[in-house]
Amino acid sequence: MARKLGQIVARGNQRWLVRVFLGRDLQTKKRVYHNRTIHGSMRKAQLYLNKALRERDLRRGVKGSKVLLGEYLDHWLEAGVRPRVRDGSYDDYAGQLRRYILPVLGDKLLDAISPLDIQNVYQQMIGRGLSGRTVRYVHAVLHSALNQAVSWQLLFQNPAVGLQLPREFQREMLVLTFDELRRFLRAAIPTSSGLILAIAATTGMRPNEYLAIKWTDIDWQKHTVAVTRTLHRRDGCWKFDGTKGRKGRRVIKLQNWVLELLQDLRHSRAQREMAADVWRDARELVFTTTSGNPINENTLRKHFKSLIAEAGVPRLRLYDLRHTAATLYISAGVSIKVVSEMLGHASTAFTLDTYAHVLPHMQDQAAAQVEWILLEKQGALSGNVIVSGHMGNSQTDPALERAGTLRDGEDNAPKSIIKNARS
After folding, report:
1. What's the fold here for domain 178-318+418-422?
2. Alpha-carbon distance 368 to 65, whole Å?
């Protein structure tokens, strides 16, 4: 067939390469083709070629061949992303594109972007030592943007389809044990950030959630706190935003000793006057600076690092207090569904997948508990129990003993922490 109409080239048994001429690159003046390998009969390849030619003719005259990728992405962010996502997500998408895509491909024509161009960008990212997760995240954003370009009839097909992506290795989750958390809280509570970190470690809330708590969110009778908003700082201004997903709006039970510390804070706050230049909405916040302004997450993160070193516990991120809370609740036997609701996860399946490392230890504990109940109901003879068909001396399961020790010690540890903080 004529080059300008299209070609079907045999590539082997029942394999055909369909080529459609799209025009010339305005910069390089080289011919640009759409290529697709079709598996099956010659008739199937011909049908695809006819369809491709029709679609090529339909899109002639559109602006896809005249707009730069950078210009298109700016338009996509404003028209296709901002109306449907939270400001935080918008900033994330824009940041990924600005850091990794625009410097390399931003000045190239939209319809001149090839799969190889994008693949080379990913390869450069890997060469710079970026993780597979980062590459996959950038790919997801760019893939979505180019899919929209296809829907808007600016592209014939999405060049981000069918690329080779690096494996995403699961990052080792760092959490504190019960004993380590007690040591950390003893060091943290007497400080200005102590109560914030105590709430982080006992509720599993995200940093931008607990920094956005208002006094009206706390139910003093039910001992709960409602998560209804997040706090962000953009362009030098503070702003409230919605929670992450529909299930991000939730109610979390507060531990008694945490509630006592909140009551003490409310009493001391009532006796303190706010500065005149304080952000108006900050007057209702539970956690503020000494001048009454919202607390910056970066400032809290720095203080957290110093407290970690002072307490002598393993180094971890501020966000890992959320994982610590979830892991300890699951280890204590709390239902996965309850933990999922507490964390505001979209599904219980996501919670199970995230904290699967805790479940094998829970199985040991659960088996020991059920075995103990069964034998207790039937009455073991002379302190002996039947285990796997053999008679043996009754022994306390280490998992049960450890869990019992943790539960017994929990009521005492926080009280001593409060006592030390008040003295």
Report:
1. hpI Integrase; Chain A (1.10.443)
2. 68
Residues in the chain: 423
pLDDT tens sequence for the chain (423 residues)? 344 568 888 988 899 998 887 777 666 777 777 888 999 998 898 888 888 777 666 555 444 557 889 999 999 999 899 888 888 888 899 999 999 999 999 999 888 899 999 999 999 999 999 999 999 999 999 999 999 998 887 887 899 999 999 987 777 788 999 999 999 999 999 999 999 999 999 999 999 999 999 999 999 999 999 999 999 888 778 888 888 888 899 999 999 999 999 999 988 876 565 555 556 667 789 999 888 889 999 999 999 999 999 999 999 999 999 999 999 998 888 889 999 999 999 999 999 888 887 766 667 777 777 777 777 655 544 444 433 333 334 444 443 343 333 334 444 445 555 445 554
Sort 236 into a burial class: Cβ within 10 Å, 0-12 / 13-18 / 19+. Answer: exposed
Any bridge partners for residue 392, and if so which? 385
pTM over 0.70: no
* DSSP symbol at 355: T
Q: Where are the domains of the chain?
A: 7-58, 65-151, 178-318+418-422
Q: Which helix (H) or strand (E) holds 134?
A: helix 132-151
The tokens for 128 are 């710079």
Distance of CA 215 to the CA centre of its chain: 27
C-alpha–C-alpha distance, residues 18 and 7, integer Å: 6
Query: 395 by DSSP, 3-state: which?
Result: coil
CATH of domain 65-151: 1.10.150.130
Residue 421, H or E segment: helix 398-422
Q: Is 75 helix (H, G, I), strand (E, B) or coil?
A: helix
3 state DSSP class of 26:
coil
| 3-class SS shares of the chain: helix, strand, coil, % to 5 | 55, 15, 30
Cross-strand bridge partners of residue 164: none
User: Which ranges of 204-354 does DSSP label H, i.e. alpha helix?
Assistant: 207-210, 256-270, 297-311, 320-331, 336-343, 348-354
